[in-house]
Design a protein that fits this description.
single chain, mainly beta, four-stranded antiparallel β-sheet, four-stranded mixed β-sheet, 0% helix
Length: 152
């Protein structure tokens, strides 16, 4: 029996939840592909791209709001997001010398700080007294945050 290779790929996101300053402003974050347990003599290449998230109701339509990457073929990239929404990116790492290829998806949420919120069926706007963000969803899909009701 030879040595078994079990490479691992992970994605580090500096800020998985971003806030758009003032539309039409852009916002940025750094993404890094982290590889573990690849062979010592691996010839690794990287490929970053935006993909269409089909599950989230807030998913960005790629053709309408494309992400700009500082590079698409390096381990670390800066991603620029043109508007609010849930963006999905995929990094693929290929080791041509060992015929290995791994892909990993990551999600970045860009919040519009001017959007309206519905809380208990009432429309609330940011900046209105008594109305705050409720149940922010993280990139892992769990909920973090707190809730305060709108005042009538």
């Amino acid at each position: 029996m030879g040595n078994r290779i079990n490479p691992i790929l992970d994605v580090k996101i500096d800020r998985p939840i971003l806030r758009l300053a003032e539309p039409p402003a852009e916002t940025k974050t750094n993404l890094m592909a982290l590889t573990y347990q690849f062979p010592a003599n691996a010839k690794v290449t990287y490929s970053w791209k935006q993909i269409q998230d089909e599950l989230s109701p807030l998913a960005v339509k790629m053709a309408e709001k494309p992400i700009r990457f500082s590079s698409t073929n390096t381990a670390q990239v800066e991603a620029t997001f043109p508007d609010w929404g849930v963006y999905e990116v995929r990094v693929t790492v290929t080791d041509s010398s060992h015929n290995l290829s791994l892909s990993r998806n990551a999600w970045i949420n860009v919040w519009n700080n001017r959007s309206n919120l519905l809380i208990d069926g009432k429309m609330c706007s940011h900046g209105r007294e008594g109305c705050w963000v409720t149940s922010a969803r993280t990139a892992r899909g769990d909920y973090a945050g707190w809730r305060k009701k709108c005042t009538p």
